[in-house]
Amino acid sequence: MLAVCIVMTVVWWRKRAEDRAAVRGAMPGCIARLGSEAECDARFDKHHRECFTYNNKPAGKFSPRAFDENGYLECVIASPEPWAAARRAARAEREKAERRQLR
């Protein structure tokens, strides 16, 4: 039982460190775009979890962990729903263009 608690604590601590690193890395870009650290703090508080989840791909058996820093910043600034809708629309447009090229 103690081993499970230790493992869970390590996993929690690693996740917390990744969260803090993401916010710390995106803060200068956010301040440059929005002009206020207080506004950025409010955005991170409101949108961090969802944006972090959208832009973080955990390590797999054959691939390393990948985190899209630019996507994360854009998501936090634009809010998750509009940002995700814009990404889906851009992907659909790219796929449509690729299909036209194959014809």
SSE layout:
Layout: H1 2-34, H2 37-55, E1 56-57, E2 66-67, H3 69-78, H4 80-102
Antiparallel strand pairs: 1-2
Structure commentary:
The protein has 103 residues and is mainly alpha-helical. 83% of the residues lie in helices and 4% in strands. The chain contains 4 helices and 2 strands. A two-stranded antiparallel sheet has the order 1-2. α1 (2-34) crosses α2 (37-55) and α2 (37-55) crosses α3. The longest helix has 33 residues, at 2-34.
In short:
The protein is mostly helical and 103 residues long. It has helices at 2-34, 37-55, 69-78, 80-102; strands at residues 56-57, 66-67.
Count the beta strands.
2
Strand order of the largest sheet: 1-2
Low-confidence stretches: none
Counting helices, strands and paired strands, the structural category is mainly alpha
Q: In terms of quaternary structure, what is this?
A: single chain
Number of helices: 4
Helix content: over 70%
Cα gyration radius (Å): 17 Å
- Average pLDDT over all residues: 91
- End-to-end separation: 60 Å
Sequence of secondary-structure elements: HHEEHH
